[in-house]
Amino acid sequence: MAAEAAPPRPHTVTVTVNGRPVVLPDHEATGLEIKRAAITKGLPIDEGFQLSVRQGNGRYQVVDDNKTVHVHAHQEFLAVPPDDNS
């Protein structure tokens, strides 16, 4: 008797947005999908915020809404209002 194949496990990834954990459904997401996941989690941001990802050198690189990024566990994102020049 052949064993049934187990259903594929979801490949969720937990990242941080503004220091709070956000679970993404896959290892690839657009900037807009990351912001929507953060909003669903209750972060006080909206889709108009600018999203950036922390690079290895400690600097942040902007992630456009339609840009797909490969995400990994504990990756840090920052979402700020578009008029915040920090």
Kindly state the percentage of residues in helix. Answer: 10-25%
Distance between the termini: 63 Å
Task: State which percent range the strand residues make up.
Answer: 25-35%
Strand order of the largest sheet: 2-1-7-4-5
Strand runs, count: 7
- Number of helical elements: 1
- Would you tell me the overall average pLDDT? 90
Given helix and strand content, the structural type is mainly beta
Poorly predicted runs of 5 or more residues: none
Radius of gyration: 15 Å
Shape: globular
| CATH architecture annotation | Roll
Return the CATH topology.
Ubiquitin-like (UB roll)
Largest sheet: 5 strands, mixed
H/E element order:
EEEHEEEE
CATH class: Alpha Beta
Pfam families: Multi_ubiq
Domain Multi-ubiquitin: 13-80
InterPro entries: Multi-ubiquitin_dom (IPR027802)
Protein name: Multi-ubiquitin domain-containing protein
What does this structure look like?
This protein is mainly beta and 86 residues long. The chain has one domain: Ubiquitin-like (UB roll), CATH 3.10.20. It is 12% helix and 35% strand. The strands form 2 sheets. The chain has a 5-stranded mixed beta sheet, with helices on one face. It has a two-stranded antiparallel ribbon with strand order 3-6. Strand 1 and strand 2 form a beta hairpin. InterPro entries: Multi-ubiquitin_dom (IPR027802).
